[in-house]
Every structure is written in C-alpha cells, then in structure tokens.
C-alpha cells in the first residue's frame, strides 16, 4: 500500500506522500505529514525484515521507497516539521511528537527535546483526552518527572464525570462520548510506558534490558513510593515488576 501511495519527486530524488489527513484532524488535507511519512517508512522496514526472516525475496521498490522517504525537518531549529507549509498554527491533538512515542523514530536527544518542547505548546488546551498522556510518556522518557506527572494528571482529571467517574472525551461539562477508551488507554500507557518506562523491540538509547527484547527506563513521580506491575506475560513466562521511588527496579518470575 505505502509503495503505491508514495510519489517520487524526481527533482529532489525522494519519495513523498501527498493528500493525507495527519493526526491533527484540524489541519485538513496536507502533503508530507511527518508522522504519516515516518510511519510508512517504518512499516516498509518491518515488512522488509519480515520477508528476510522468512527467506523470501524483498522487492527492490520497497527498499528504495523506505530509504528515500521524505520526513520534513528544519535543520536550523533542529526539529521535525509537522507537514509541508506548517506555519505554527495550533493543533487539535498530539501530532508531530508522536514520532517520539509511540513510533520511536530514531533521532538525537536534542532533536527529541526540541521537537517535543515546540509542539507541546502548539496543542489546543481545550483538545481531547489523548494528548496529555502522550506528553506524559515523552516527558518521562526525557527524565522530566515533574512535567510527566503534570501531564499525567491532566490526562484524566478534566474528563471524569458523575459518581462512577466515567471517562468523557471532551473537557466540557457535557456528557459526550462516555467511556472514551482512547483516553483510558492513554492513562494506562502513561503508567506502563511513561513512569515504568517499558519498551519492546530494539534497545532504545538510555534504556536497560530486563528481559530479551524488553527494556526499561523508569521515571517515577516524586510523590510515589512504589509502582508494581504484575503478571507481565513475556515469552511464555509471567513476571512481576517493582519500581521504587529512586527508579531502582527488580523483576521476578512468578512461580
């Protein structure tokens, strides 16, 4: 699919993806969404790896599109650009910062910080529930525990409604799209992938391996004494993970 959607810009010797709706829904149809293009590149890389592992031939076109996929970037400010022609407008929800999490697109630490610090200020403070959880996870990855905790509380407190604390999609006092699972999932991810700092797959820079292809970089809130995650099912075995306030951790296999 991505090969068919990629347009080859002969003048610049690169592949582009045109006419897409980025994660920021308010942007409308744009060209070369940084997140969309990076996701397409990653999809192709994973497909290539899967074919190699299966001993199958990899189409040369897949390699070419993946290697020449254009990801908008500003060399002067050293941060990614949301899409062609982006002018700094407010965004409805997290968009370009999704390159950092969940996509884990490779980038130097300074680019990660600059991209996050720029775009977190661009998101609409009246936006839906998903953004603050993403910001909490990224802030935790950067080691900013106070900032991560602030975003964490903002990811659920403005959205709880009624005596049963139902999760609302919007910040308004109205009851709209109740039991909003996207928001609930974001809160859980803030704990598992933010404060606990778990990652799966290739080893991210600055993370420590706890099990094969499972890595950790905790960033505990200062007012939490301990975080325990039980029944982590990994490669046929179950584990319990315990993280203390000083970010020291221990993982135990369940009997």
Report on this structure.
The strands form five sheets. Strands 7-9-8 form a three-stranded antiparallel sheet. It is α+β, with helices and mostly antiparallel strands. The mean pLDDT is 95. It has helices at residues 2-5, 34-53, 60-67, 109-119, 130-141, 145-154, 181-195, and strands at 6-9, 14-17, 73-74, 79-80, 160-161, 166-167, 198-200, 208-211, 214-216, 226-234, 237-244, 249-253. 31% of the residues lie in helices and 19% in strands. The protein contains seven helices and twelve strands.
Strand content: 15-25%
**Uncertain stretches of 5 or more adjacent residues:** none
Task: Specify the number of helices.
Answer: 7
Distance between the termini: 45 Å
Helix content: 25-40%
Order of helices and strands: HEEHHEEHHHEEHEEEEEE
Rg, alpha carbons:
20 Å
Number of strands: 12
Task: Give the integer mean of the pLDDT values.
Answer: 95
The description of the largest β-sheet is: 3 strands, antiparallel
Task: Provide a compact summary of the structure.
With 255 residues, this protein is α+β, with helices and mostly antiparallel strands. 31% of the residues lie in helices and 19% in strands. The chain is built from 7 helices and 12 strands.
Could you name the key traits of this structure?
12 strands; alpha+beta; globular; three-stranded antiparallel sheet; 255 residues; 7 helices
Architecture blueprint of SSEs:
Layout: H1 2-5, E1 6-9, E2 14-17, H2 34-53, H3 60-67, E3 73-74, E4 79-80, H4 109-119, H5 130-141, H6 145-154, E5 160-161, E6 166-167, H7 181-195, E7 198-200, E8 208-211, E9 214-216, E10 226-234, E11 237-244, E12 249-253
Antiparallel strand pairs: 1-2, 3-4, 5-6, 7-9, 8-9, 10-11, 11-12
Helix pairs in contact: 2-3, 5-6, 5-7
